[in-house]
Amino acid sequence: MLTEFEKRIAENYDRALRLGALFFIENTLLILPTDSVNYEVRYAPSLFKKPKAALLPEEDEPRIDPFAPWEPDLFVQEYGDYVVLLNKYCVVPHHLLIITKEFRLQTEPLYPKDLAAIWYCMSHLSTPSLAFYNCGEMSGASQLHKHVQVIPLGINSPPIETCIDAIIEKHPGSIFDLSQWPFVHCGMFLDQEKMVPPSNPDSSEPCYDLVGEYLAEVFHRLLDETISLLRELADGSISFKGLSYNFLMTKKWALMVPRRNENYHHISINSLGFAGMILVKREEDLEMVRNVGVLNILKEVAYPKT
Ligand code: B4P
Predict the structure, then answer these.
(1) Annotated catalytic residue: which of 95, 124, 145, 147?
(2) CATH for 247
């Protein structure tokens, strides 16, 4: 059964589509199977015409913030200091953005309130979903106004979940590493007991603040671990100021991958790449993904372990 939140998303999505305020980007889904993951590659040729904005444009270039003001036709609801919007250019229907009402930078880490808002949205979706944060210049982000994205996955899990499910010791709170991935990353299983928001005597909605604080602990442990892994690797040659990374979270686990390149040739990779979901806009790029292989592409945009 759909939640009230999902009904509102569906109604507003249909209306925005009808009004021409939102574009569903036609795409073809291809599955590239490997031993451990069935990678998903979406080929969306019409996106080639949409220029990819730089996160940090040149000083003399005008900076346009699409979230200030946000478009009313894309509105889903408010949550505290955040607004939940429909993604204007979606490849998957009902793709959501959680934006800060006040301008904040996409180069900031996530804080308890950000994570409470993410968990509010995810816990009101009855089907699996994936939240992600493209942080920093090399992360695949193109908008500087702080935003997290939540993508509903229908009945599916993200492709990478087959590797995560295969981990035998699933202790919440301990860091895990995927043996299949030859690049720096770290993950953590979430403590399901700490994900239940306590009821709030002042409101019919439970209180998400404590979950936000717990998730911020997870986020910062992953960020600390990421930095120490890079320190071990790099003998001082990596600058941690302005470090770019991708953060992904489902209801069961969270994952962080630091980034050294935004793209592989013309193929821009954002957090979804590390969920096993690649987007290409040109036929030659599709061919390149087939020839080079998704794992090799991910290795090029992340930091190889050796
Ligand atoms: P960012 O964090 O800045 O970057 P992004 O998701 O990589 O999207 P980008 O804009 O660079 O687009 P791309 O062609 O690579 O996110 C900004 C978000 O704001 C985007 O979702 C954008 O669509 C949205 N937006 C821009 N203007 C807006 C407005 N006025 N109101 C509301 N939202 C607005 O990719 C195109 C889309 O495909 C992106 O949504 C991307 O997240 C998604 N995508 C990428 N890989 C995918 C995959 N494998 N499967 C499904 N979707 C995928």
Answers:
(1) 147
(2) 3.30.428.70
